[in-house]
Amino acid sequence: MLRVENLTKKFKKVTAVDNVSFEVNPGEIIGLLGENGAGKTTTLRMLATMLKPTSGNAMIDGYNIIDNPNKIRERIGILFGGDVALYDRLTGRENMIYFAKLNGMSDLEADQAVNKITSELEMSDYIDRPVGKYSRGMKQKVSLARSIIHQPDVMLFDEPSTGLDVLSSKLIHDFILKCKKDNKAIVFSSHNMYETEKLCDRIIIIHKGKIVASGTIEQLKKDYQKDSLEDLFIECIGGMQDE
């Protein structure tokens, strides 16, 4: 389980994330929905221990992101849109083994995990070729694999389909749904209404660093008397534009 408590991040005079709190249960996908600059990525970077909060905290399996960053990193998988985070000179297999060992897996555990996920994602034809010779879709598959190779409890996806074609986007969506089926707690950020509605059990709408609405999409549509997620989103942030 992931629990976020009053998380805040300030950059000089700018408050990028303002007192954000939420929980994510195993087997649940929570969507962070907001405009560019709303605070989604900053929130995820704090959860990933890449940024230190100004105040507040978050807990994963009893460990908090401030005092136990190494324990947190063992328990999370991260996929940021547009960033495949692979070494071109290494093969796909070598990349995955490298990331597996970074997460404390033994040689045997790493080999077994790589073989399993290579089969699941149908990468056998190219997994032993240098990543620098891969297509974008191939790289994306390996990047997906390395993000979950150590079987983390929590997955963080930051606009993972940005810049991808339809087939590559579907691969991402199917992978996220597989993570849910495998009982991962998932936080998914996006400004894409279609994929948010397709994937998320609940959404959190963020505007200027603050949560302005949260709940299931259907309940929020009912509460705000809107027929579409797009109209709901505009309603939630529209009244706050001039503040």
Automatic annotation (TrEMBL):
Q: What GO terms are given for molecular function?
A: ATP binding; ATP hydrolysis activity
Matches recorded under Pfam families:
ABC_tran
Please provide the record's keywords in A-Z order.
ATP-binding, Nucleotide-binding, Transport
What PROSITE patterns does UniProt report for this protein, alphabetically? Answer: ABC_TRANSPORTER_2 (PS50893)
Task: Kindly indicate whether the keyword Transcription regulation belongs to this entry.
Answer: no
Domain named ABC transporter: residues: 2-233
SUPFAM superfamilies according to UniProt: P-loop containing nucleoside triphosphate hydrolases (SSF52540)
Superkingdom of the organism of origin:
Bacteria
PANTHER family from the xrefs?
ABC TRANSPORTER ATP-BINDING PROTEIN, ABC TRANSPORTER ATP-BINDING PROTEIN NATA
The record's similarity note reads: Belongs to the ABC transporter superfamily.
Q: What is this protein called?
A: ABC transporter
